[in-house]
Every structure is written in structure tokens, then in C-alpha cells.
Amino acid sequence: MTTEPPVIAAVDGSSHSLEALDWAAHEAVRRGLALVVVHARTPMPHAVRETQRREAEELLTLCVRRVSRVAPDLHPTTLTPMDYPSAAVTSLSRDASLVVVGSRGLGGFRSLLLGSDSMAIASMAKCPVVVVHGEPPEESRQETSSDIVVGVAADESSEDVLAFAFATAASRPGARLRIVHGWTMVSSMLSGGPVFDRDAAAGAAERTLAELTAGWREKYPQVEVVRESVGGSASRALVTASATAALTVVGRRRGGESLGLGLSPVAQTTLGHALGPVAVVPC
Q: 20 to 30 Å CA-CA from 145: which of 91, 169, 205, 255?
């Protein structure tokens, strides 16, 4: 293990959070990091706190045993903060390399695509957050590849997003990194590019993508890279790619949390509709 901050897996006993725990354990091994399993206990009346504490201990014992089966060489530690889950995990994220959560918890309505705690943590955490979706419906299930898919935009800093995506791909031998840049005639106009010539706009988008990714191949020569400039909805391209990707990576505006602007429309749509794990990286 390194001295770098650990991977945090947030659990509540739901099937989604246990799938997220498995994903976090595998990722901690790949990155050579420690694993901390966190179960936040929402503040309750004093009369039920002992029962709450006992249930938390039972859940964390179950989680440690589960990790020992998934990753026998990993020896996780556990935490049971007395706080609301999103607040507790967001606070702990200050000293984490990665936070992993399930897409929905025990309190989520089955009709919801993404639970409120998962959305809040992805919007406010100080480190990258991976939201692990449950198994997709059988009719939507496709064979998963080892591709890491990352969406980059011309109007925001993509350095941190690309750094996370390349490091993730490098930790998975044989993984291919697909870098997706979605563009429209409107986005071309807003960025000062061609307005009426679609071919010229496509060429400008490809040049933008080349500029955004310049230098990364030299830093990670072992990673196979595919650049995709997509005319149309970036979120649609990422959701489609997520059906077969090992991980889909999107950015999040750093510093916009207090205004409710942490997640861009592309990030929100990708998180809500993806068919596989999604990483949200502060950028």
C-alpha cells in the first residue's frame, strides 16, 4: 500500500451499495490504495441509538467479510460517523483519493434513476466520485469492454478529468481510453468557431480535441488512446458508450457547489442514464 489517501466505499446495506463496495475493493487493489468502508448513521432519538449502533456494526462486519472474499489481500478499516450520509461522506472526501457509492440506497424510490445522497455526494465531494449503477435490464445488457470513456469539453478545464482518466486506464492492463468531445453548431458559435459551415465546425472541434489531449500520450505511452469528435449531444454519446465501458468519466465544476452548479447538464444526464459506473471528477 502507498501513503496516498484511501478509497472510501459508502454503504447502507442496499444491493447497490454492496455492488459499489465490490467495485471499490477491486479499484483499491488496482491502485495500491487502502480501503475505508463508511456507514453513516443518521442522527436518531437517543432511545434507538443503541439499536442503530448494533445494526451499523453488523453491517460493517458483513462488509469486511465481503471484501475478504472479493480482495483477500485487502484489509479495510471501517467508520460509522453520526451524520447524514451525504454530509458525512462529503466531509470525509477531503482526505480520500476516491469515493465510491451506489446509484440508489435503501430509501430510494425504485423509479428514481439516481438517489438523492448519491447525487449530493457526486455534486459536492472534494475528490473524484464513482457512482456504481446496478445491473442494467437484461434487454439493455451488453458485453462490457475494458474501455475507459472520458468526456471532455472545450469550455471548461479538462486537465483534472484527463489526469484521472489516464491514471485509471494505466492501472488496468490492456485498457483503451476513448476521449469523447461532443460539439454542435451552437457550441461552435459560442466558442468563436465556424457558425454556418458544418464541415469547418467539425474540423475545428477535432483540432480542439487534439489540443486538449496534447502531451498525455507521451506521459502514458502504455495507454491506447482513441479520440472521438462527436457532432451532436455529448451526453447521448457518453450514455451510449457507458453500456460497454468499464468506466465513464465526466467533469464537475469545482467551486459551484454552493450555487447548485456542481454538475453540468452533460454530467447530470450521464449520471442519471448511464448503464455502467460513472466517475465524476472536480475540475
A: 205
What contacts 64, CB < 8 A, 6 or more positions away? 37, 76, 78
Q: For 180-212, what is each residue's pLDDT tens digit? A: 987 665 555 545 566 666 777 677 778 888 888
Q: Rounded to the nearest 5°, which phi and psi values hold at 67?
A: -65, -40
DSSP state of 48: G
**β-bridge partners, 37:** 9, 78
More confident residue, 33 or 135: 33
The number of beta carbons lying within 10 Å of the beta carbon of residue 104 is: 24
Per domain, the residue ranges of the chain are: 7-134, 140-282
pLDDT, one tens digit per residue, over 11-29 is 999 898 999 999 999 999 9
Please count the other Cβ atoms lying within 10 Å of the Cβ belonging to residue 270: 27
Of 54, 60, 55, 58, nearest in space to 11 by CA: 60
Q: What is the pTM of this model?
A: 0.88
Tell me which fold the domain 140-282 belongs to. Rossmann fold (3.40.50)
